[in-house]
Amino acid sequence: MALVKVALSLTTLALISSTFCIAHPGFGFGFGWGSGFGGSVGGGGGLSFGLFPQFYQFSCPQVDEVIMSVLEPIIASNPRTAASLLRLHFHDCFAQGCDASVLLDDGAGVVSEKRSVPNMNSLRGFEVIDEIKVKLEEVCPGVVSCADVVALSARASVVLSGGPSWELPLGRRDSKTASISLSNSNIPPPNSTIQNLITLFQRQGLNEVDLVALSGGHTIGVARCTTFKQRLYNQNGNNLPDQTLEQTYSHELRSVCPRFGGDNNITPLDVASPARFDNTYFKLILWGKGLLTSDEVLLTGRVQKTMELVKTYAENEALFFEQFSQSMVKMGSIGALTGSRGEVRKNCRRVN
Questions:
Q1: What is the pLDDT of residues 226-249, one digit of tens each?
Q2: Mean pLDDT along residues 334-340
Q3: Which one of 24, 89, 91, 251 is the catalytic residue?
Q4: Looking at the domain assignment, is residue 17 inside a domain?
Q5: Which end of the chain is more exposed for a tag (fewer CB within 10 A), N or C?
Q6: Final residue of a domain: which of 187, 219, 239?
Q7: Does residue 91 carry a catalytic annotation?
């Protein structure tokens, strides 16, 4: 049994470490959406070319192994952690770019993004990032940034949940500031209309394809009652439930999420396979069982492109995996600090 576990662990690590040279020869890695990684996509400051997958090849070749050694047992015992780490990467990138600003605690000149409306009492996984960082500082002191730890942990979490891996450009540096205002204004709320979602994604340089593919990350994890309560009782201010919500599912949700109280009660975003990264999320949307308004409007928002993509990904998991991987790379380059900008924090919760 021990040999089997070792073999499985090595297989997973090999999958994550693969560079997919056929799909992405050399350092070109073009996906057709831009020429180069790093800098700010839709966030000002232009593109730079400081990110590449082999960034730690010589300075910290153990980085993937260290991250997997921490995440494998944690996710095996608590699968929800995978979704938490994936969400942490999203919320980091959408506020000030993928610079680990979301990890900073309140301090001198820093008002923590953890206090923003989307993050307060909601965002999780900080202790896991701390544990990974401590281990990396033991083997490669001052080398691997917290921003890259967040990005690598998100990828590993998807893989450990049965999803795809992707070639991940690395070399992000950590910010010395945070922005609670950008966290409040840029992260899409769960009751978003389709047009609001499109606008907020376009602000980050992400298009409708990225929107639908990245929304597929809701195939794992849970949501709090407060994020979908209005769909059950007062969707349009008329004290009536959302008519797009399948009735049996709506009834089941009311048992978890009462009209009054219970705001922190949780239920899976993907009720059919909540711990497995697959395309069931899209099938559920077609069946009227998308949990959040922001899930269901991908189909019911009357935007032809997003409607078609929901149907396509529901039918073709491989295509969803491929596009999700590409969109994760694209999102992971938003506002990346490279070169001499930023720093490599010793402790992810505070600047050096």
A1: 999 999 999 988 899 999 999 999
A2: 95
A3: 91
A4: no
A5: N
A6: 187
A7: yes
